[in-house]
Amino acid sequence: MSLRCITPLPCSMVGHKLQKPPIHKPLFYHKPFNTPYLKKKIPARSRLAKTTINMAVITTDEGITRRIGNHHPNLWDDDFIQSLSKAYEAPSYGERAEKLIKDVKDMFNALPVQSSSAEDLYQHLSLVDHVERLGIDRHFQTEIKNALDYVYRYWSDKGIGCGRESTHADLNTSALGFKILRLHRYGISSDMLQQFIPKDKNLMHLKSEPNEEEIKSILNLFRASLIAFPEEKAMDGAKSFSTTYLKQALPKINNLNLSREIKFNLEYGWHTNVPRLETRTYLDIYGEDSSWASKNINNTFYKKLLELAKLDFNMVQSVQQKELQILSRWWTESGLAKLEFSRHRHVEYYLWAAGGCIEPKYSAFRIGFAKLSALVTYLDDIYDTYGTLDELKIFTKAIKRYLFIIIGQVG
User: Are 271 and 161 part of one and the same domain?
Assistant: First the structure.
């Protein structure tokens, strides 16, 4: 996966005056939102690197023959990394985020009271789905658990309807519920999905303008089918049917945001994507127009939910930029930058850790993982390419002596 940049997301800060963050060159690049103060794309600093390694043999002035990997150079300049702005470290942003988190929790807690018996199950699932896909679910673990426990109480072998008093299973609610409940380790069977799949699988009856609600239901069925266990025939059938349906319906969809969502899911598959990139893509689509995805969320709450998602994204990115600066200083001050024969991949290793572990509280892990991985890479290049046999024997003995000293000090 090539490195791409993500520009800071503009936050409206409804009802709260905050200083507008300065525009700065981002570390990763992604299509920015259309905003008054972010009108054009900022060119990416990265460039694609060749993955092949051309081995070469050189002879030093001392007459020593060495192998050189000819690795591509470090793509990230230390001065550039140190120049990154961390505008979202200001306390006012954290205070605003806490206020928005409280508002969203109040929305969760109000669901059992305000939801109608005809749509309460779907409303619970829809809110959980939104906060998870917007990347802010870590703030609402208790609320999500309560919402899913509520839905699970009404789950049957046939799935569920839109509300607790529904007498018939609903495809959209059942597919969405199946995906979320399975991901949260609730014991549910996929057999109930078979009732929604046409036996003849003849899709030629699609209308010139297919029903949008039906398309959303099939999209949720497709997303649910991607988390199948081995040999789950019902899931295989659901995936085959939903994929064919969506591909046939795609040219006839007038809603551009819904069309973008379907194209992205068909091409990449949310289950194999990096969660943070999935969140960023969803923010692009969700932020432009939520009418196709959020009919059960009132406009005021929708704005708060979107504001929190953008603010949280920027605050987390600011933390990670600071960590990257710490890592870059360590790399320079340790002298590793002077070892030109080895791969300089500390930034890539950090992004590897940050891609799957984004929470600020795991800062020590991300930095430690990147440092350890960089050191292992240096050792690998020393042993595999650069060092001679005699040098490696001496080097190995030195490492063993050092380890014995450390063990003795610990003991």
Answer: yes
